[in-house]
Amino acid sequence: MTENLPDLQHLPIGAITSPHAVRLRHTPSAPLFRVRLHVLLTAAGVIAAVAGAAVSAAPTPVEVRMTADAYEIGGSQLAATEPGVYRGPDGAAVVMEHVDGATRAGASAGLDGAHMTGACTLPDGARVETCRFTLAGRALAAVDTWTGHGWRRRYDDGRRVDIAVTGGRPVPVPIAVGR
Predict the structure, then answer these.
(1) Which end of the chain is more exposed for a tag (fewer CB within 10 A), N or C?
(2) Which of 34, 130, 112, 123 is nearest to 74 (CA)?
């Protein structure tokens, strides 16, 4: 007699939402926090792109080189016209003199279409030079710290720029680079 009876073990008793309804238990075949390979690769790609953008956005150091014949800055060459005086074809000029245990340097140039004047003082043996600039009528000050192969300049408004100096010795940079 029990042979023809339906299997009553899997029939819900009451409404489907009833706590007495028979439900099958489902066990997940994979852990809940399993991360797929394509998600990891996408995340790695995004991180690499952000790092690349940060590196490319960082300004490259401005290069400075001074010899007895020329003062070169950022690809512009100013030729020596007499000891300590350098002039460029566009009217830019840098003048340097050693007085009272310090090298003082002054400059006048056009910088991105604006007139700029600058003056820096580098005491003998010092690893720091101080500079003052006027750029398009606006006063700026900067402190340059020697890194061993150039200056790390910090303007008084917080902007920073690296200046690579060829030759391994501090050279005054009286031009408002990075502005």
Answers:
(1) N
(2) 112
pLDDT tens digits for range 57-116 = 556 889 999 999 999 999 899 999 999 999 999 999 999 999 999 999 999 999 989 999
b/e map 69-86, b = 16+ CB within 10 Å: eebbbeeeebebeeeeeb
121, two tokens? 């003082």
Does the predicted model carry a pTM greater than 0.70? no
Strand-pairing partners, residue 78, are 71
Question: Do β-strands 150-155 and 114-123 pair in parallel, antiparallel, or remain unpaired?
Answer: unpaired
Torsion sign, CA atoms 101, 106, 111, 116: positive
Pairing of strands 160-165, 62-66: parallel
**Three-state secondary structure readout of 14-78:** CCCCCCCCCCCCCCCCCCCCCCCHHHHHHHHHHHHHHHHHHHHHCCCCEEEEECCCEEEECCEEE
